[in-house]
């Protein structure tokens, strides 16, 4: 049986981001400054620009939001979410590595208040206190921590 177009779901909004670990195994999160996202923590990520590859968007967003040049080490997953208006979004995420001699300094200071590394337990506690931007933030961090552990064996 051929599945017709009724089985297709169009998702126009795309985002890309990175889960970045430091040498101690902590995960980098950024605290947002703007709009309804202000004060919430999330992985470095953002919208994919027209004509931009998903990978380049993830690299660009990390550089803009943290000041770090990273390398995409492993594809993590694509998370399907939705905005308040119901529009669907695909969030593509990679596990990323960086040279820790780089300074941690957001370039988009009008958008990002700070960038800090947290342990997975601290991130879980932040979720319970409703300090993470979305449920996907927790899922991304937990899945990345598991992948990192699996790769180290």
TrEMBL record:
Alphabetized Pfam families for the sequence: NUDIX
Assigned keywords, A-Z: Hydrolase
Domain Nudix hydrolase: 11-140
Domain of life: Bacteria
GO molecular function: hydrolase activity
InterPro entries linked to this entry: Nudix_hydrolase (IPR020476), NUDIX_hydrolase-like_dom_sf (IPR015797), NUDIX_hydrolase_dom (IPR000086)
PROSITE patterns: NUDIX
Protein name: DNA mismatch repair protein MutT
Originating species: Veronia nyctiphanis
